[in-house]
């Protein structure tokens, strides 16, 4: 046991003992795979696994006959009935909160991902309307088109000439960052092209700030102490946050009346500049992190599955032939929607490698989940979509195989319940950008695969939690021109 752990335990022990004593009497139906320690209860278990919550939850859940394990004050579940209850049936009893929201507050503030109640509903209503309008969809599509054809494709092509190995995960994160800045502010930081010092500074600051607030939840020394002393990661966070806030505040002050997302929220005079800053950063998180994470795992999976690549290429060719298109022309919106096999392949990847694998809610009042698990007021309930995607009871004996066909009925993509597949969440907080995320991913994949072969040059595949489940070490690839005879 290291000194830093003892120091942390000494500071927090009184509070944790009170919490444990108050909430340590679950109902008899709770499955508890770990034996609590005398006096300390489950506190040592929690501290030991504080920095590996996903792995820990993934180890404990399958031990339970109902796929719900209790380590009070935590409940880990992968039971679809429980998830429907938490996200829909008893939604108001399970808001966001607790230590995760506290750790994120400095960065996310009162934005849509870190708020509840009327403030959340107000942001949700405005965003929902905008994401369902034809103009915003066209705007997003135009951004993706321009960034893909004018920047991403030339970078991949140039790497062939120079025989350069690229970190595809890094490229995709920059690609997504430029896209979301264009959508939110009408501003292109050019982080993918690397042609703007200001834009690169903005990208790196945003990246570091988001990583640091996530790491707060597993920090050995309480992050509040480091923040108070302004040392280590908290000093870097303050510097990075300052750069991000400076940039975003500039756009908030301008409140340009044009076709960007910030202007839609700025039209409401009740939204203060501070709230507009929070709203902007939250939407930047949504647009920058999830899509590139999903695409990184997707290209990694394709690198060892040529049959799936062949099927995707055949579908792209079929769509092209309907309108006599050639590969120099960007796909139209409806053409991308016709790519059912590609849609299924992306869904299959996210089943096994969900961008957000573990989500936490806090119980407002005592409750009983559908599988009989008792929940005490103030307990943390975490649902695990990573485990769910690997359950034979939900997906069959071949659940660990990558098989896009499981999503197709007569060649047409068929979705499943969001409580069986909570990759885009469910209930009132279901992801607003789900359709546009698919369109962006399909656009990138179709354009890249049609032109290039992507070869992974180093062994990869280990998940690493940040804002999303990124690939540890990035995804180093070598790019080659595709032989058109194989399409």
Automatic annotation (TrEMBL):
CDD domains named among the record's database cross-references: CYP86A
One Pfam family in the UniProt entry: p450
Family, similarity comment: Belongs to the cytochrome P450 family.
Residues annotated for heme binding in this entry: 431
Taxonomic path: Eukaryota, Viridiplantae, Streptophyta, Embryophyta, Tracheophyta
Organism: Dioscorea cayennensis subsp. rotundata (White Guinea yam)
GO molecular function per UniProt: heme binding; iron ion binding; monooxygenase activity; oxidoreductase activity, acting on paired donors, with incorporation or reduction of molecular oxygen
Entry-linked InterPro entries: Cyt_P450, Cyt_P450_CS, Cyt_P450_E_grp-I, Cyt_P450_sf
The keyword Oxidoreductase is annotated on this UniProt entry: yes
Tagged with keyword Heme: yes
Signal peptide: 1-24
GO process annotations (BP): lipid metabolic process
Keywords assigned: Heme, Iron, Metal-binding, Monooxygenase, Oxidoreductase, Signal
Protein name: Cytochrome P450 94A1-like
Co-factor(s): heme
């Amino acid at each position: 046991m290291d000194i830093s752990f003892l120091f942390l335990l000494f500071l927090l022990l009184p509070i944790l003992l009170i919490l444990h004593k108050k909430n340590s009497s679950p109902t008899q139906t709770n499955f508890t795979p770990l034996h609590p320690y005398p006096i300390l209860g489950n506190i040592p278990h929690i501290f030991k696994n504080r920095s590996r919550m996903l792995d820990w939850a993934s180890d404990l859940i399958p031990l339970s006959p109902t796929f719900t394990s209790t380590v009070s004050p935590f409940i880990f579940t992968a039971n679809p009935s429980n998830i429907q209850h938490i996200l829909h049936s008893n939604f108001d009893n399970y808001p966001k909160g607790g230590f995760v929201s506290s750790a994120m507050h400095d960065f996310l503030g009162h934005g849509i991902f870190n708020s509840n109640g009327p403030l959340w509903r107000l942001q949700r209503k405005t965003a929902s309307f905008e994401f369902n309008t034809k103009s915003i969809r066209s705007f997003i599509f135009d951004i993706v088109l321009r960034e893909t054809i004018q920047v991403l494709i030339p970078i991949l092509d140039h790497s062939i000439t120079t025989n350069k190995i690229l970190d595809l995960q890094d490229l995709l994160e920059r690609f997504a960052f430029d896209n979301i800045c264009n959508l939110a502010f009408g501003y292109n930081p050019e982080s993918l092209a690397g042609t703007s010092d200001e834009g690169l500074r903005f990208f790196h600051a945003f990246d570091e700030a988001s990583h640091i607030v996530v790491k707060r939840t597993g920090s050995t020394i309480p992050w509040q102490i480091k923040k108070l002393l302004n040392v280590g990661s908290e000093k870097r966070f303050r510097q990075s946050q300052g750069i991000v806030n400076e940039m975003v505040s500039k756009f908030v002050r301008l409140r340009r009346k044009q076709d960007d997302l910030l202007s839609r929220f700025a039209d409401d005079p009740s939204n203060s500049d501070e709230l507009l800053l929070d709203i902007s950063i939250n939407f930047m998180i949504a647009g920058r992190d999830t899509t590139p994470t999903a695409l990184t795992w997707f290209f990694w999976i394709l690198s060892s599955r040529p049959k799936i690549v062949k099927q995707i290429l055949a579908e792209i060719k079929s769509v092209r032939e309907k309108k006599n298109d050639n590969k120099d022309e960007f796909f139209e919106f409806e053409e991308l929607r016709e790519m059912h096999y590609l849609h299924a392949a992306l869904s299959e990847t996210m089943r096994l490698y969900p961008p957000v694998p573990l989500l936490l809610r806090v119980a407002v009042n005592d409750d009983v989940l559908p599988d009989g698990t008792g929940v005490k007021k103030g307990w943390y309930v975490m649902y695990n979509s990573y485990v769910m995607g690997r359950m034979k009871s939900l997906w069959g004996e071949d659940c660990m195989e990558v098989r896009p066909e499981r999503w197709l009925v007569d060649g047409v993509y068929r979705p499943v319940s969001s409580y069986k597949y909570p990759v885009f969440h469910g209930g009132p907080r279901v992801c607003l950008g789900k359709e546009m995320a698919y369109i962006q991913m399909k656009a990138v994949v179709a354009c890249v695969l049609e032109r290039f072969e992507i070869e992974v040059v180093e062994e990869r595949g280990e998940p690493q939690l940040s804002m999303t489940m990124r690939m540890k070490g990035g995804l180093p690839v070598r790019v080659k021109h595709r032989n058109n005879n194989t399409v």
